[in-house]
Specification:
nucleotide-binding, binds ligand DP6, alpha+beta, 2 domains, Alpha-Beta Plaits, binds adenosine-5'-diphosphate, binds cobalt (II) ion, Ribosomal Protein S5, domain 2, 14 strands, about 325 residues
C-alpha cells in the first residue's frame, strides 16, 4: 500500500468556565459544561502518515521518540479512524508543541485536536468538524473544543453527549490572554489522574457539580452581551472553585509564582486595569486582559518573581489542515 499523509495544526484553549471530572460511563464526557477561548499564539503541528511498512504506530513528540501512555492514547484515536476508513496500516505521528508539554498549558487540547484532524484527513475520510471534535474529545475532553475557533462550549453532565460548539467568534470580546510561564517542566499529576482522584476523594466535588454549570451559563451570557468584566470576574471564580475542589483531594497545581502573579493581577485591577486571572491544571497564571490594557499588564507581570516569560495570545481560529507546501517547510 502507498502512504497516506496529512498535516494539521491546532491551538490550545483556555477554559473560562472550567470542566473538572468525568461523567460516569464511556466516551470521556465531562461531568459539567465548560466554555473556552481558543488561543492564537501557541500551536501544535502534527503530521500523520499511514504506512503499510510499519509494524506498529510510532510517535515523535517534540523531536523525541515517545512510547508508553502518550503513544497508547494516540494509537487509540488512530484505531477509531482505521476502523471507519478500513485501513490496516500503522501510522507514523510527528508532532511538536511550540510551548511546554503536559505542564498545564493545554497541550492535550491542541495535541489531540491536531492529531484527530490530521488522522481523519490522512485516511481520506470526509468527516464534519463536529465529528472530528467528538473523536478528539474521547482522547482528551478539552481537545474537543480546539477544533473550533473563538469562544466554544463543551457540554457535560447528565444527558450530555460531550459535544463542542461555537458560541461566539474570536472578535466577540476585546481580549488578550497573557500566559505567564512559571516552569518548562511537566506536572507531577496529569489532568486525567488529578480529576479521577478529585472525584474519588474531594469532599467538595458535589458542591463543584452544583456550582460549575451556573458559572458556565453566567459566562456564556456575558460573552454574548460583550460584558468583559463579568466574563473576567466569573472566569476567575471558576478557576478558584476548581482548584479549591482539587486541593481538598490533596492535589496542588499552583506554586508560589502562580499566587504571586494572581496577586499582581488583582493589584492591577485595584489600580483600574481590566485584568482577571485563571489557572488550569498546572502552575501557570493566565491573565485575561482588555486589549487596551495588555501592554501595561504585561510589563507588570514580567516583574513578578517566578514568572519566566510571558506568551501573548489572543482569541484565534480552530484546527486546520496545512497545504502540502506549507507542511513541508
Ligand atoms: P496539559 O495540561 O498539557 O494538557 P495533560 O495532562 O492534560 O496536560 O496532557 C498531557 C498529555 O497530552 C501528554 O502526556 C500526551 O499524552 C498528550 N499530548 C500533549 N501534546 C501532544 C501532541 N502534540 N501530540 C499528541 N499527544 C500530545
Ligand atoms: C483544568 O481535557 O486535559 O484544563 O480529558 O483527562 O485529557 P483529559 O483532561 P483535560 O483537562 C482539562 C482540565 C482543565 C479545565 C478545562 O480545560 O476545562
Ligand atoms: Co490537558
Amino acid at each position: 500500500m502507498s502512504t497516506l499523509s496529512a498535516t494539521a495544526c491546532a491551538h490550545p484553549n483556555i477554559a473560562l468556565a472550567k470542566y473538572w471530572g468525568k461523567r460516569e460511563g464511556e466516551g470521556n464526557v465531562p461531568a459539567v459544561p465548560s466554555l473556552s477561548v481558543t488561543l492564537a499564539g501557541m500551536t501544535t503541528t502534527t503530521t500523520v502518515t499511514f504506512d503499510g511498512a510499519l509494524a506498529s504506530d510510532e510517535l515523535s513528540l517534540n523531536g523525541a521518540s515517545t512510547d508508553g501512555r502518550p503513544l497508547a492514547r494516540a494509537s487509540a484515536l488512530l484505531d477509531v479512524v482505521r476502523r471507519d476508513a478500513g485501513i490496516d496500516a500503522r501510522a507514523r505521528i510527528v508532532s511538536a508543541n511550540d510551548f511546554p508539554t503536559a505542564s498545564g498549558l493545554a497541550s492535550s487540547a491542541s495535541g489531540f485536536a491536531a492529531l484527530a484532524l490530521a488522522a481523519v484527513r490522512a485516511a481520506g475520510l470526509d468527516w464534519s468538524v463536529t465529528r472530528v471534535s467528538d473523536l478528539a474529545r474521547r482522547s482528551s475532553a478539552s481537545a474537543g473544543r480546539s477544533l473550533f475557533g473563538g469562544f466554544v462550549e463543551l457540554d457535560g453532565g447528565d444527558g450530555a453527549t460531550g459535544t463542542s460548539a461555537s458560541v461566539a467568534s474570536p472578535s466577540a470580546l476585546d481580549l488578550k490572554v497573557l500566559v505567564c510561564v512559571t516552569t518548562e517542566a511537566a506536572k507531577a499529576t496529569s489532568s486525567t489522574d488529578g480529576m479521577l482522584l478529585t472525584q474519588r476523594v474531594s469532599p467538595y466535588y458535589p458542591a463543584w457539580l452544583q456550582e460549575a454549570p451556573r458559572l458556565c451559563a453566567k459566562i456564556r451570557a456575558a460573552i454574548l452581551a460583550g460584558d468583559f468584566s463579568t466574563v473576567g470576574e466569573y472566569a476567575e471564580k471558576s478557576a478558584l472553585a476548581m482548584h479549591a475542589c482539587a486541593m481538598a483531594a490533596g492535589i496542588v497545581y499552583v506554586s508560589g509564582a502562580t499566587l504571586a502573579a494572581l496577586a499582581e493581577v488583582r493589584a492591577m485591577r485595584a489600580d483600574g486595569l481590566q485584568t482577571y486571572g485563571t489557572i488550569d491544571a498546572g502552575p501557570h497564571l493566565k491573565c485575561l486582559v482588555r486589549g487596551s490594557d495588555a501592554a501595561a499588564a504585561k510589563e507588570r507581570l514580567a516583574r513578578v518573581p517566578g514568572v519566566l516569560r510571558i506568551l501573548e495570545t489572543s482569541p484565534g481560529d480552530g484546527a486546520r489542515i496545512l497545504p502540502l507546501a506549507e507542511a513541508s517547510r
